[in-house]
Amino acid sequence: MKTLISSLVIAATVAMSSASFAQNNHTFSVSKETKDVNFEVKSIVEGKIDVTVMKNKGESLSIKLTDTNGNILATKSLDKKDPASRVRFNLNELPNGVYHVVITEGTFKETKEVILDTQNVDSYRTITMG
């Protein structure tokens, strides 16, 4: 049995104001030779994606938000000495569509799809004249 050299725990909380996701609450895990990855996505409010990363020192990591064409919309890098960080991506200004949160550490890469489907809110006023 191989010894785990490092472990990486990622908890991502996806926040969407009036938004829906293809799969709202789910967890998936990936094991590599030296990595254990847990990535959890939950929808809450405020139109933001919060990605919380806890890792061992000595590992550099990158978190990116991309569109379906692979264009990088936002990125955050953690250097080798950062043991933990929280990254917030604001989706309020983005159009509806499919986006990806991409976690990269060396040759390890994990992607999570996020579907932004904001509902339009119609407002109206009633005026009564007497």
TrEMBL record:
InterPro entries found in the cross-reference section: Secre_tail
The organism's place on the tree of life at top rank = Bacteria
The cross-references to Pfam families, in alphabetical order and at most eight, read: Por_Secre_tail
The record places domain Secretion system C-terminal sorting at 47-115
Q: What keywords would UniProt list here?
A: Signal
Question: Is the Zinc keyword given for this protein?
Answer: no
Q: Which residues form a coiled coil?
A: none
User: Where in the sequence is the signal peptide annotated?
Assistant: 1-22
Q: What is this protein called?
A: Por secretion system C-terminal sorting domain-containing protein
